[in-house]
Amino acid sequence: MAHVSAAERRPQLIKAAIALMTREGVTAGSTRAIAAELGVAQATVHYTFGTKEDLYRAVMEQLTGDLIAQVERAAPQDAGFEETIAAMAGALWRTVEVEASGYQLLTELAMLALRTPGLSEARTAHYQQVTEVTERIFAETASRTGYVLAQPPGLVARFFLSGIDGLTMQRLYAPGEPADNTGLRALIAATVALAGGKLELPDVPIS
């Protein structure tokens, strides 16, 4: 059997762990079960990652990277500030509707990290990275469109993401309820109201 390096095995194990824990929950994600999911020996997991916490950290990093890529893809390049917020909110919500299990897994891992010292840095990094990307998009959009924010972009980003998190949790708690975008529309309106910006008119030289 051909030897597979740790560098090659790493993404395979992360993918297997995500598939297993998405399907059966974080508590099912033992190193033995993850190894069986991929069809390798349990020792392979420990050789590649060292500990289960190291593997979980890698899973959180992968899920965070996927979420950040999703946020960046959702931001239009030629829309106004308000339209950008609406586009990002809509794209994130569609993902919740279609791939709720992925959000649920990331939420479960974040809760686990609260009581697992070895995962606390991954939880903090996840929060910081998602917030920083959203803040950057808001700031760049405001600058590009001449929209002067009444509040710091970081505050607007945290408010927006907190609302998305809240709506997501409500959806996870009641998956059988009919889809209703009322809450999402209210979040978009509230975020725009908090931003409270005004359109900055360019200076016109007097000849």
TrEMBL record:
Organism (species): Streptomyces misionensis
HTH tetR-type domain boundaries: 7-67
Pfam name, any one: TetR_N
Alphabetic keyword roster: DNA-binding
Record has DNA-binding as a keyword: yes
A molecular function (GO) term: transcription cis-regulatory region binding
DNA-binding interval(s): 30-49
PANTHER family with a match to the protein in the record: HTH-TYPE TRANSCRIPTIONAL DUAL REGULATOR CECR, HTH-TYPE TRANSCRIPTIONAL REGULATOR RUTR
Name under which the protein is recorded: TetR/AcrR family transcriptional regulator
